[in-house]
Design brief:
Blueprint: E1 2-7, E2 12-13, H1 30-49, E3 54-59, E4 62-63, H2 69-79, E5 84-91, E6 108-114, H3 116-119, E7 137-142, H4 156-159
Parallel strand pairs: 1-3, 2-4, 3-5, 5-6, 6-7
Helix pairs in contact: 1-2
The structure holds iron/sulfur cluster (SF4).
Length: 166
């Protein structure tokens, strides 16, 4: 059976501070983080057992998942399972991306959202070394904050990597 799965665990926190977002700079309690990690590990164990199916998985956490080691590990592990056709996550790409070298680039995908008002100082830029391993599928979108985002020129850092907002 072909299964397309949207996964969202208890996580509900983010390292960015977007003014319109309920998860901005919110911190999860240690208990919630432990529950989120345990739930994700249960899911990856379940996925590893589904050898008779073909899985496509998209992680859409409330907040940012890739700053948590268990999401990075899950993406790496799932990308190597033969029954997983695609594993992807929505991310603000605030984390370092060296971990993507451990994943199968043919299976891993990142849905990267560019927040110009949040990245001026942290960098969302291939030249800053934050871009994922070449080969994995990436898609980019940009949130526009009118006082800050003045147009596609603001996406110059990601235009080489298929910015889609222009
Ligand atoms: S990066 Fe996304 S989840 Fe984080 S505060 Fe901004 S809109 Fe919310």
């Amino acid at each position: 059976m072909d299964l397309t799965i949207l996964y969202r665990g208890p996580l509900a926190s983010c390292d960015y501070d977007c003014p319109y977002c309920p998860f901005a700079k919110r911190r999860d309690s240690p208990e919630r983080l432990r529950a989120d990690r345990a739930a994700l590990e249960r899911f990856t164990a379940w996925a590893a057992e589904q050898t008779g199916d073909r899985l496509s998985v998209l992680f859409t956490p409330w907040g940012e998942g890739l700053v948590r080691s268990w999401y990075r590990r899950a993406l790496i592990e799932l990308s190597h399972l033969p029954q997983v056709e695609r594993v992807a996550i929505q991310t603000n790409l605030s984390c370092r991306t060296g971990w993507t070298a451990e994943a199968d680039p043919a299976t891993l995908a990142l849905w990267c959202t560019y927040h110009p008002d949040q990245t001026r100082t942290t960098g969302f830029s291939p030249s800053a070394g934050s871009w994922p391993r070449a080969g994995c599928v990436t898609a980019s979108a940009s949130w526009g904050c009118p006082p800050i985002w003045t147009g596609p020129a603001d996406c110059a850092p990601i235009s080489r990597a298929r910015c889609t907002c222009g």
